[in-house]
Every structure is written in C-alpha cells, then in structure tokens.
Amino acid sequence: ASKLISIAEKRLKRNIDILYIDVAGSRNKTIQYIKARGFGGNIIAEHHADTKYIVVSAASIIAKYLRDRYINYLKSIYGDFGSGYPSDSKTIRWLSNWIKYHKELPPIVRKSWLTVRKLRTKTLLNYLRGD
C-alpha cells in the first residue's frame, strides 16, 4: 500500500490528501497498516466502497480492465488457464496439470492461496505414493 501511495504521489507531483479504500478484511487493521507506513492524509476505508464512492467505482473498473489485459498476456505465454481465480475449476485443472508436468508451481500463481497449498500437498502425496 505504501509503495502504491508513493507511486501515485510521484505521478501526481503532489501529496495525496484523501485515500479511498474498498476494504476486504478488517477496516481497522487496514487503516492501521496504511498509517503505520507513513500515510498522514484522511483515510476513507469501507466495505463496498465501490458502491458508495464514484472514484472507487472508477478505480475498480480500471483495475478490472488492466487485470483482464494482463491475464490475456499471461495466457499468450502459459496457455488458457481460465479466469486465474482460485475457485475457478478451469484454473485448478490447469494448475494441477502444470504441477504434474513441471514438478513445480508456475511463477505466476500466488503461493499463499489455499487452493495452491492444497494442490501442492496433494501432488506431493501422489509423488510419495508413486502416482
């Protein structure tokens, strides 16, 4: 978060006064995290902020567009892996096949996802059993 704020401030060539955040987890922890990294401006952190503030809605649309473009770029390199979300059955199948073939995780996955950790464990168990 602090790196993104710094990048935005440099691009804007001024300090950011208000930071809007669409909170996914704990509102208080999110605010504490950002303040601990030196942000001194006003923080508006709310669940579903994208439905309450037009600036957050716009940022959400832009982020989705940029993500989709990047996903398409990754697909041109790694093949069609579905949406890339950990609950997508096509993504899970692709990831499972990748691990079977390459014996390691692809560099594009988040190793912290529960789905990824489960697949790693399952693959290791299959390997130890000789499957």
Radius of gyration: 19 Å
Major sheet attributes: 2 strands, parallel
Helix content: 55-70%
Query: Span from first to last CA?
Result: 43 Å
Average pLDDT across residues? 87
Helices and strands: which structural class? mainly alpha
Account of the protein in words:
The chain has 131 residues and is mostly helical. The protein has 2 domains: 1-78, Nucleotidyltransferase, domain 5, CATH 3.30.420.10; 80-131, Arc Repressor Mutant, subunit A (Orthogonal Bundle), CATH 1.10.10. Helix content is 58%, strand content 8%. It is built from 5 helices and 2 strands; from the N terminus they run H-E-H-E-H-H-H. It has helices at 2-12, 27-36, 54-78, 89-102, 114-129, and strands at 18-22, 42-46. Strands 1-2 form a two-stranded parallel sheet. Helix 2 (27-36) links the parallel strand 1 (18-22) and strand 2 (42-46). Helix 4 (89-102) crosses helix 5 (114-129). The protein is elongated and about 60 Å long. The N and C termini lie far apart (43 Å).
